[in-house]
Amino acid sequence: MSKINLLALLTANPAYKQLATHLFLLILWHRDSPKEEVPESFDDRFFDRVAWQVGETSQLLGDALRKKLGIYTLETGSLAAHHEYFRTIARGLAEEDSLRPMLLEMLLQTLEADGSYEGTRPCPEELIQVIAGISQQAGGRSYYDPLSANGRLLAELVSTSSPSACGLGQSSADEDILHGLLRAFFKHDSLTFEKADALKSPPVDGVSLQAFDSVVSDLSGGAEAWDPELGVRDPFGRFRYGVASKGKGEWPFIQHMLACMRPDHGLAIAVVDQAALLRAGKDAEIRRGIIQANLLDAVIYLPPKLYRSDVRPLAILVFKSSRQSLSVLLVDGSKLYTSEKSLNTLTQAGIRQIQEQYSRREPVDGTAVLLSIAELESNGFALNLGRYFSARADEGLHDLDALSREHEHIKRELWDVGAQIDELLGRLAG
User: Which of 90, 243, 262, 404 is spaced 20 to 30 A from 231 at the CA atom?
Assistant: First the structure.
């Protein structure tokens, strides 16, 4: 039985979502043991035994699975009604043991793509490819994702790095941690996942922050919450470039990422909403400090609608702790996509173009520019796309959808400016 046929069998069952964790256990069944005959019965005792066996290898994963088994209780109160269903899948797995990791990854991705997934939205595969390509150019063996979602990005970086590579992911969402642990259990024993708020509980080595070769994260969907009090009383001095306003979490997370880079050859890559590149007030002060410290290496502008129900255009920010160059590379990848209904997807040719332009670090008419820190200063350290790349006369003039997106973007920016003015007036009044 092929992995496609197995996945089709899995997802065709009406109780698929309720059975998900039991399916995980079935796939994990005797992972490290010789092949055995398919069990005579699949009941609560069988899955309890498998959960215990998993816990012997990974207590954290075992505990997470037991918790989920308690949440996903079948309406019948028994697995007896699904006995033949499990036997069929188990026979397919017994025929080809190598199917298990592949099937697990496909199962995880299917669940993560569902609207009912309770974890952080998964990073698109094409975006992972861009980030992995940039990270590979820098090298390194230790990776950290402070907002690790489901572990897909971290797992890809470790798998495409050296055999001795390791990774740490943090998330406060149970579903994220479970999926990350499952990926680590099957694919990368060197991956570790912690249920933690990275800003409140950063990774430490003794009394100091743990340092990594590469710190990467998609901040576009889960970095909204931020309490300035954390910045005021931070014992690690992570927010040296300024304390952002309440609710604006991108730049606090970026400063945390910078603080966790190795000081000699560290790399940090963050995906952000393009709105974060031009906000005034505290965000502008932080941008200025980071750019003047010569930490910003590149800005890569991305298309809008890379996520369903999210029209915002995104950007990739690349930072380095020991830069030799005194210029910042800006790459316009905002038009390198194909569109299907309400979703845009980066093309493979576009991904290669972005990676090549980052590697070459040369100006390319219309798509890449190199700017000195003095030039950025003359532009108020704003990094918005329109300031450095002119729209082509023959493009987008009648794109009503694009105009609508821009309209929403401007409204959000006006709201941000209004909030900053209110904050300033409040300080003056006090």
Answer: 262
